[in-house]
């Protein structure tokens, strides 16, 4: 495989860069990518990253999450675990695909799955995270069903054992799981996802005792009992627009928004990694790059196991 070249930024220039390379090397299934410019948005960056994760964890990195449902098939994107995926992430891939295919020599040469993988790397860089080479050559999947999503995505209340089991299914280690969890340093969540931790934790505690008391108070102010559950709050209260190791420092202080975040610190097996990366951003960046590369290899389709879609939202 040929890896993309240099640091990148997200945008429609992605399509042009891929096109120019493919025009020079028409027989290759991969391409090199040069500098890309982008408009950074608070929604697009986490939306694209989350879309890639949800795609790869269900039937592999094959853009099956982008398929639209039809009267005869309820697709992955309409499963309850995926309905909250922001449209901005889909739009990034669709626009890049459209621009790419508008050039005759590039039409139907690059899969939606590869475009999503590249876009994901680029939003990581746009969020001041580490750049990394993206392995290319994926084909787009030939099926997408809502039923296939069930039980394959981590939930906000998962413990370390459940998280490890789910990630292990995709050949990802506990260290990979902790590194990828740091994607929660970006974006926002709906109040409904944290109500149980701040109002009805268990019979003994109304508020989750692992929550920082000041942070719990802030969450209650942002998400009062009668608030519209769709109201959004930052997942990372300190640096919500930057992919960095502050996520781990937040966990040390009891400021993990989801139970699945905070357990990484309260669990004795995962805490040493959290402590290590909280004080060493270079080590975290290296682990994140390693984990993202491994994630991008999950369930990849090649040859006759997939194809290159003309429309990312529909099968050929």
TrEMBL record:
Locations listed in the record: Secreted
Catalytic activity: 2 a phenolic donor + H2O2 = 2 a phenolic radical donor + 2 H2O
Cofactor or coenzyme needed: Ca(2+); heme b
The keyword Glycoprotein is annotated on this UniProt entry: no
Domain Plant heme peroxidase family profile: 46-316
Coiled-coil portions: none
Domain of life assignment: Eukaryota
Keywords: Calcium, Disulfide bond, Heme, Hydrogen peroxide, Iron, Metal-binding, Oxidoreductase, Peroxidase, Secreted, Signal
Function statement: Removal of H(2)O(2), oxidation of toxic reductants, biosynthesis and degradation of lignin, suberization, auxin catabolism, response to environmental stresses such as wounding, pathogen attack and oxidative stress.
Family: Belongs to the peroxidase family. Ascorbate peroxidase subfamily.
Protein name, as recorded: Peroxidase
Source species of the chain: Brassica napus (Rape)
């Amino acid at each position: 495989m040929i890896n993309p070249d240099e640091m990148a930024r997200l945008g429609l220039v992605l399509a042009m860069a891929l096109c120019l390379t493919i025009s020079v090397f028409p027989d290759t299934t991969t391409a090199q990518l040069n500098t890309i410019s982008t408009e950074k948005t608070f929604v697009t960056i986490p939306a694209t990253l989350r879309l890639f994760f949800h795609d790869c964890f269900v039937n592999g990195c094959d853009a099956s999450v982008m398929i639209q449902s039809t009267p005869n098939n309820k697709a992955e994107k309409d499963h309850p675990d995926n309905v909250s995926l922001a449209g901005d992430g889909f739009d990034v891939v669709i626009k890049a695909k459209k621009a790419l295919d508008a050039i005759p020599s590039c039409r139907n040469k690059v899969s939606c799955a590869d475009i999503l993988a590249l876009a994901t790397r680029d939003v990581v860089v746009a969020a001041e995270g580490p750049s990394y080479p993206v392995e290319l050559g994926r084909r787009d999947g030939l099926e997408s069903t809502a039923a296939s999503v069930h039980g394959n995505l981590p939930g906000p209340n998962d413990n370390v054992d459940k998280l490890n089991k789910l990630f292990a299914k995709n050949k990802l280690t506990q260290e990979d799981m902790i590194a990828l969890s740091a994607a929660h340093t970006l974006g926002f969540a709906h109040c409904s996802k944290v109500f149980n931790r701040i109002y009805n934790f268990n019979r003994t505690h109304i508020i989750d005792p692992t929550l920082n008391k000041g942070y719990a108070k802030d969450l209650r102010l942002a998400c009062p009992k009668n608030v519209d559950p769709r109201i959004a709050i930052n997942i990372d209260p300190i640096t919500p627009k930057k992919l960095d190791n502050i996520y781990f420092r937040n966990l040390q202080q009891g400021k993990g928004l989801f139970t699945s975040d905070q357990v990484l610190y309260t669990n004795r097996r995962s805490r040493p990694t959290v402590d290590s990366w909280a004080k060493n951003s270079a080590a975290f960046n290296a682990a994140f790059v390693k984990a993202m590369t491994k994630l991008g290899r999950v369930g990849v389709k090649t040859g006759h196991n997939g194809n290159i879609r003309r429309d990312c939202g529909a099968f050929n």
